[in-house]
Amino acid sequence: MNHEIAISIEPISDNNQAMLRGVIDYVNANSNLRVHKVGAVPFFPLANLKDWNGAGVICTTETVRQLNTVAKLTIPCVSVSLHHTPPDSLPTVHSDNEAIGKLAAEHLYGIGLRKFAFVGNKNWSHNQERLLGFQTELRKKRADCEIINVQFANTKQWIWPAEIQRQPLTSELIKLRQPVGIFAAHDEFAHDVVETLKSLQIQIPHDAAVIGVNNNRLICETTNPPLSSIVQSAHQIGYRAGKLLHELILGNSPPSEIIRIPPEGLVARKSSDCSAMKDEHIVAALSYIDLRCGHPITVVDVADHVGVSRRTLDKRCIAGLGYPVAEQIRRSRINKARQLLDSTNLQVTAIGFKCGYESPSGFIRAFRELTGITPGEHRSRNQN
């Protein structure tokens, strides 16, 4: 028997589109399922589902109104949102938001910062969880964070692409002690944080490093400087939601808890790509390394560019970063390699050459030493 399902996930961002692809990949792998389409797009408005006679629906429930709409449906339903705590009757697949917060803390602490802030909406469940993960990890390191609650400009409910109120945000950001690492619960919030910091003449990332969540490239790559962002496992969320809905259609019992999927990782861009140290020599060295890490540069090259001796620069880097210049070169190269492995189909050998390694064996060895796995294993894991 064939089952027709509806997908009510608007394809307005990279994250939503990846979830859609995940659902569709599950459907394509099961011949007794098919997706209902309106015209050319596999999207069905949630408000229209009350008169639809299909087998089930996968949807976002970002507002209380949407939750109420779903609660009235008589067909199996799976939500992929966690703005509000769902009722027990609504099976939900979402990110492991505490793991997202933990990853943010590890990244910002790892670039040398010791003061932190969280920007999010305290009324949203997934923002509360991201804050909890962020605080828990920081407290393990004997640190904590300031909490800035966003206020929306034109509505009580955030509706994409509405902005948050700048004046309250400005008042809170100006109070932060610098250098500071700021974790924004969404890329939209992170963008507004960056714009507000620039209006206050606060340098990014030297005085304030900023990261967001979702890796929405339309936002991240058009923000100046480009935004670092945590990547949710959106494709896997969609695929798992498709599988769960299929199980419900076949009469299986729903899970007793929310299904949580760990994030894929963090894409580092200019907004957090160097330590927020005051040492101008370190800042200059980090900028040069980031620009030239695809070439076979040496520590002497970096020292000559900065205008100090190799020994002096190493001492400054060890004091400010916790490791010497050579280690920063290696980290920059491997970070570039990760991005190329994830975003291109280039062969591993070609990626090694693009990242400044003169031999495949040297690249693979350096990658394994820093990450614990080979470049090929990294690519396979992310593809899976």
Compact description:
This protein is an alpha/beta fold.
Draw up the topology in text.
Layout (H helix, E strand, L loop, with lengths): L2 E6 L5 H15 L4 E3 L20 E4 L4 H8 L5 E3 L13 E3 L1 H14 L5 E5 L4 H16 L4 E5 L16 H8 L6 E5 L2 H13 L8 E6 L3 H4 L7 E4 L2 H16 L9 E3 L3 E3 L12 H13 L6 H8 L3 H12 L3 H19 L4 H7 L5 H12 L3 H9 L1
Parallel strand pairs: 1-2, 1-3, 3-4, 5-11, 6-7, 6-8, 8-9, 9-10
Antiparallel strand pairs: 10-12
Helix pairs in contact: 1-8, 3-4, 5-6, 9-10, 9-12, 12-15, 13-14
Structural commentary:
- The chain is an alpha/beta fold.
- The protein has three domains: 3-94 and 234-263, 3-Layer(aba) Sandwich (Rossmann fold); 97-231 and 266-272, 3-Layer(aba) Sandwich (Rossmann fold), CATH 3.40.50; 280-383, Orthogonal Bundle (Arc Repressor Mutant, subunit A), CATH 1.10.10.
- It is built from 15 helices and twelve strands.
- The strands form three sheets. Strands 7-6-8-9-10-12 form a six-stranded mixed β-sheet, sandwiched between helices. Strands 2-1-3-4 form a four-stranded parallel β-sheet, with helices on one face.
- Helix 1 (14-28) packs across helix 8 (234-249).
